[in-house]
């Protein structure tokens, strides 16, 4: 018959064994991450290559150098957009990254931007609670993340990564260092045709409004090597969450 001390030692030994296995799995996952390959990048040292609607270029803002500032003045849909013609782009896995600071917008939600492919588009949205989500068209009800721990805080810079994985038919969204959304993706993501930051739609199923004070610092298209590296803690949480 086991004594209390023996049971405690067994629990500790089992916990340590599981921790070691988790560490091994985490290290293997880190080793499997490819080297970053950037296919397109713009740090907004100017807006010369963008079509600009109610957007101002700032040489410096909030400790950032070169910022696109969107604010509704003359038009109802402030945004910047441009065609993308990449000499090389990944057919199976593509990551769209941008840095943004959201100070204010109208209505109940707002489109952060969109990436366009030949037959489909992915539009990233946020609601008044700071939850990030995704929608495919103006009539589609947006799908928001369910997490309350990782949301967009106003007047703070955030990094957004959209990972479209054709191999696994999946789309994942990262906010800063955490993955906050997992969904299905069943359309080709090659080649990238256009990028848009700011207003994509107004009203519609998501009750989208317009930016009155929104900023972008950088945008890029790359492989999955630019995704945030998982920490041991986040890797263990992903295992526990299945």
- What is the CATH topology descriptor? Jelly Rolls
- Give the domain tally: 1
Helix/sheet category: alpha+beta
Residue runs with pLDDT of under 50 for 5 or more positions: none
**What is the global morphology?**
globular
- Amount of beta strand: 35-45%
Annotated CATH architecture: Sandwich
Percent of residues in helices comes to 10-25%
CATH class: Mainly Beta
Kindly state the mean pLDDT as a whole number? 85
CA-CA gap between termini: 35 Å
Query: Quick one: how many beta strands?
Result: 15
Rg, Å, rounded: 21 Å
What characterizes the major β-sheet? 8 strands, antiparallel
- Summed up, the helix count is 2
N-to-C SSE series? HEEEEEEEEEEEEEEEH
Keywords:
242 residues; 2 helices; LamG domain-containing protein
Topology:
Blueprint: H1 4-32, E1 38-42, E2 51-53, E3 55-61, E4 64-70, E5 79-83, E6 93-105, E7 109-116, E8 121-127, E9 132-135, E10 143-144, E11 157-165, E12 170-175, E13 178-184, E14 194-198, E15 211-222, H2 232-240
Protein name: LamG domain-containing protein
Structure description:
The structure is a single chain. This protein has 242 residues and is of the alpha+beta class. The protein has one domain (37-228): Jelly Rolls (Sandwich), CATH 2.60.120. The protein contains 2 helices and 15 strands. The chain is globular. The model has no long low-confidence stretch (mean pLDDT 85).
